[in-house]
Structures are given as C-alpha cells and as structure tokens.
Design brief:
This protein is α+β, with helices and mostly antiparallel strands and about 600 residues long. The chain has two domains: about 375 residues, no CATH class; about 150 residues, 2-Layer Sandwich (Alpha-Beta Plaits). The protein has a five-stranded antiparallel beta sheet with strand order 4-3-6-1-7. The chain has a five-stranded antiparallel beta sheet with strand order 10-9-11-8-12. It has a two-stranded antiparallel sheet with strand order 2-5. The two termini are about 30 Å apart. It comes from Siminovitchia fortis. GO terms for molecular function: monoatomic cation transmembrane transporter activity. It is found in: Membrane. One of its GO terms (cellular component) is plasma membrane.
C-alpha cells in the first residue's frame, strides 16, 4: 500500500513538472506495479480490454465520420453569421454547442470551431479571448449531460462494470448534467463574461506588428553565391529566419526551394525573428532594405499561407528547441514566431524550447494543413484567414449524422449497449465507405486510450492493496460526523484537485475505488458516488492543463494561466454546489 501511494505521488509530481508526456509517465507507473508483483499481468492488462476504453475508441471513429463532411461546421457558421450582437452570438453558438458535446467527443468540437470563431471575431474586431474559454467550458459542461458526452463518463461506466455493478444508462448522468450545464452557462453569460480578458488574437497582433516579421535583403554583384543555389549560399538554413520569397524584377519566386538559383539584383524576402537580421548584414554583397513596403498578407500568394498551429500536450516536439525538431525539413514549414501566454518570445526562434499550448506562426503550403490537421503534434491547425467552409459531401454528412442518431435511439431504449451500438455504427460506416481504414487510424487518439487503460490498472492496484479503503476511511473520519453532504463535498474537491493536476481519466480511475469504498461503508447508493466522480473529473476549469480543450484554446485566445484561475474557480464552485445538491436529493 505504501509503495502504491509513493508511486502515485511520484506520478503526480512528474506530471506537474512535465518531465515526460502524460501517457508515458502513467504507463511507467503501471509497468513498475507489474514488475514489483503488486498487480498480476491480467490485472495490468485489464484496462486494455475494459468495455469503457473500447467504447471510447469506437466513439472517436464515429465522431470523426460525423465531422469529416463539415456539415455541422457549415451549419453552425451560417447560424453564427445571423447574430447581430456579441451576446446574441454567444447564445446562438454556445447553446447548440452544449447539445452537440452531449453526443460527440469534446476535443474534435473545440478543434473544429476554434478557427471558425477566431475568424468570425477578427472580422468584426472582437477579441477571440471573449469566446474561446467559454467554448472550452461549454463543451465540458455539455459533456456531463449523457454517458457518451465525455470519455470520463465512459471510463467510470466501464469501471463500474468491472467491479460488478450495473453501470450507467445513456441518461443516468442527465439528471445532474442538465442543471450543471444551465448553471454554468448562466455564469458564463453574466459574471464570467465580465471576467474574460480582452486579448487580441495572435493574427491580429501579427498584422499590427508586421514590420517585426518581414525584412528584405538586396543581392549585389559582390555576393559570393550569385548564380548559385539557395542551399549552397546557406540562406535556406538560417537560425530564426525563413527565406519565403525572391522578387526578381517583375517576377516573384515562391516557394523558395533549396535548388532555387540566386541572381544579382534579387530582393530576398525573409520572415521570422527579424532582430537576427544583423547577422546577415555582415555578409558581403547583401544590403538591408529598410523601407520594405511588403505586408504579411502579401505572402499569401495561393501556394503559401500563414498558418497558426498550437502545440499539443502529446506532441513529439515537446522539450525540444525548434532547431532540434528540424521543423522545416520535417514539416516543410517555417516557424516565424512563437507566442506563449499572450506574448511573443523574444529570442531566436530556433532556440525556443517548445511547451504545450505554444502558438506557432508558420509559413507553410496547403499540404501542411491537409497533412497535420489531425496530427497528434498540434491541436489547432488553421490558416489565419481560412476560406469559407464548404460541405464536401452533404449526403454523406447527413447519413453519418443519421447513423449516430439511430445508435443513440437504440441505446436510449435499451435495445443495445453503448459498446454494441458504437461497434455497429463503425461497421456501417466502413461497409458504406463513409470512412476509410486510414481515417479510422487518424481519428483514434491512441495516447488518450493509453492513459485510460493504464489509469484503470493503477485503480486496480489501489483497490487490491487496500489503499482505496484506507483513503476512504480517512475521508470518512474527517467528514462523516458533519454529514453526507460533507462527505460528498470533500470527495468532489479531492477529485477536482486530481483532475486539474493529472488528467480527467486518471482522476476518475483513482477516485472511483475510493468512492465505492465510501458508499459501502456508509451504506449509500454507489451510483451517486460514481456520478459525483464522473462530474468532478470532467469539470476541469481552473488550469489549462487539466483538460485538453482548455489547452487547445490557450494559445489561440492569447490567454495567461491566471485567466483560467480567475474565470474557472467560480465556475468550479458553481458546478460543485449544483452537483452535490442534485446528487444528495436524487440518490441519498
């Protein structure tokens, strides 16, 4: 029991210090428990065959098929365009979003709508920061409405089945989820709206400070590499600068490739950390054009685009400098600037160590957006001015939505379990060729599944060693004399702290065994405690790291860590009070 407790504490510290990617840290703890003989191989692997985890994998596929057509995105964008005031647009947008997130995974919803909202805000001169935190929070709130609304609910459901309980129906959580969502949205539209910062979007600041990002050098006859390639001149591999275009008399050479020949009289257009331009001025035959009349928009010539990408929590780029990642050769894109916590990092771009939530301003081709829109390395990949979203295949979009609705009806009437319904949906989508095997692989978030499976194994270790029972007795000794409401409140607070510091799935897996022990000791309905854990583990509002959707909007909204604390803390208490009250009266 002491070993398990120490491992969990070490896991918490490692996650807080971001010593490695979350799934690797949690997997390491599981392997350590296995090697020490605390859990058997069967118990360690039980999470990988858990019904809840497999259901989540299938949900990723179905949600991907629904969103692939762009039908929902197109409808929502048209709906948003009809609003006249900022408050009206929030009501028009966020109420349907809450409904969508009750039946679709939160992460793809936020990834999809973040660039749409940013573009809409910037067209109207509204700060995107007024919309993006509410977008994340509303999807989290909406996810508490049904069993399939968030992976946390399904994790708890799967664990209940493992422990021999009945599990949740599709709408077990709804009795708590709807009041929680209404209370949370009322706060976000009133007090929370006043607390939101008025930060300009990344692209707005970039356009205002265009001179910081563009510079020109003219090639003289004395330049030693005249009539030689960009590669030989070394201009294509500069630290913190990116050669985007060559203006040659009336001709524009773009994109510039390593094989492009440099000629005398060429105007070399660079973007990036322009403060490093002094290094180039010392090169014989290159002179700085101080009065360049180029703007960032001039770079968007049909084949090259300004792209914003947000580094994900599971990115292979983390803890490496831009130069170490070999970004340009790896992604065929140049990093112009890196923004963190609403500020541009004032150092050479190549030397910046990347962290989760960093917003990267890139110069890239159309292929970059196609290739990396679903990459685990980035949360949001969008042009700063995306083209009008068009539905690729309206019929396929309607069919995929119809299949999802049919599955929801079958589960609602108890004709199929959630697992069987989602498995049937995936088979129909595959047979009808609405989704391909390659798309299935790109839609399934394997790092999330690894976290869930490993967390379930750690939860098993807590139960087996008696750590869950010991913790439950400690909690009961503190809170039981005060009453059941105190027990529920302390249980909620502890789960909430874990979800802010760990991940939502890990928090649920660790806290559910404790909740079940408490329900047994107090002889209360275990369903009430399971619902409490599911809601508390999902309701992560206070930090950007507790829930993926919070991190997704972190960079694009130009937020600071303190913004989440300021807006999220009151919301967390509102959700806690509402949840504890409803659970007490419904189950106890």
């Amino acid at each position: 029991m002491i070993i398990v407790l120490l491992l969990i504490v070490m896991m918490l510290i490692a996650l807080l210090l971001e010593l490695a990617r979350p799934e690797l840290i949690i997997f390491l703890v599981l392997v350590t428990l296995l090697l020490l003989g605390i859990i058997t191989p069967e118990q360690a692997l039980s999470g990988f065959s858990n019904e809840g985890m497999i259901t989540i994998a299938l949900l990723f596929i179905v949600a991907g098929a629904v969103q692939k057509s762009g039908l929902i995105d197109d409808v929502m964008e048209r709906w948003l365009e009809k609003s006249k005031t900022e408050q009206e647009s929030k009501l028009r947008f966020f109420i349907p979003i809450a409904g969508l997130s009750a039946f679709l995974n939160n992460t793809p919803i936020v990834v999809t709508f973040t660039p749409i909202i940013k573009n809409w805000c910037e067209k109207r001169g509204i700060a995107p920061s007024k919309f993006l935190i509410p977008l994340s929070y509303v999807t989290i709130l909406g996810g508490t409405i049904t069993l399939m609304g968030t992976s946390t609910n399904i994790v708890v459901h799967g664990m209940l089945l493992e422990y021999g309980f009945e599990g949740f129906s599709l709408f077990t959580i709804t009795v708590v989820g709807i009041p929680v969502t209404i209370a949370g949205m009322l706060y976000l539209f009133t007090i929370g709206d006043k607390l939101l910062p008025d930060h300009k979007g990344f692209s707005q600041r970039v356009k205002e400070d265009a001179k910081e990002y563009i510079a020109e050098l003219r090639v003289k006859e004395t330049f030693p590499y005249v009539n030689q390639s960009v590669k030989k001149s070394g201009l294509g591999n500069l630290n913190g600068l990116y050669l985007i275009e060559i203006i040659r008399r009336n001709e524009r050479v773009s994109p510039v490739r390593n094989s492009t020949i440099i000629q005398a009289g060429d105007r070399l257009v660079f973007t990036g950390q322009i403060s490093t331009m002094a290094e180039l001025q010392s090169t014989m035959g290159l002179t700085l054009e101080t009065g360049t009349n180029l703007e960032l928009d001039d770079l968007k010539n049909g084949s090259i685009y300004l792209v914003e990408a947000v580094v994900s929590h599971h990115s292979s780029l983390l803890s490496k400098s831009v130069k170490q990642t070999q970004f340009r050769s790896r992604y065929d894109a140049g990093v112009i600037a890196v923004h963190r916590k609403n500020e541009k990092i004032q150092s050479k771009v190549g030397d910046i160590i990347l962290k989760p939530g960093d917003a990267l301003l890139l110069l890239a081709g159309e292929d970059f957006i196609k290739k990396y829109k679903r990459s685990n390395d980035f949360y949001v990949v969008s042009r700063l001015e995306p083209p009008k979203l068009l539905t690729k295949n309206k019929f396929q979009g309607l069919c995929s939505i119809g299949i999802l609705l049919a599955m929801i009806i079958l589960v609602s009437f108890g004709l199929l379990s959630m697992l069987k319904a989602m498995a049937l949906a995936v088979i129909i989508l595959l047979v009808s060729r609405m989704i391909s095997a390659e798309e299935i692989m790109s839609n399934v978030q394997f790092h999330v599944l690894l976290i869930i499976a490993c967390s379930l194994g750690i939860g098993t270790a807590m139960t087996k060693t008696g750590l869950a029972e010991w913790t439950a007795k400690g909690l009961m000794a503190i809170s039981a004399p005060i009453g059941v409401v105190a027990v529920l409140t302390i249980m909620y607070l502890l789960t909430s702290v874990f979800t802010e510091l760990l991940t939502n799935s890990a928090a649920a897996a660790i806290m559910l065994p404790i909740g079940l022990e408490l329900s047994s000791s107090l002889q209360l309905d275990p369903t009430g405690f399971a619902v409490l854990v599911a809601i508390a583990a999902s309701a992560s509002f206070i930090t950007p790291i507790g829930y993926q959707t919070n991190l997704i909007v972190y960079g694009p909204g130009g937020y600071r860590f303190i913004d989440y604390i300021k807006i999220g803390t009151p919301l967390s208490f509102i959700v806690m009070i509402t949840s504890v009250t409803v659970i007490y009266f419904v189950w106890f």
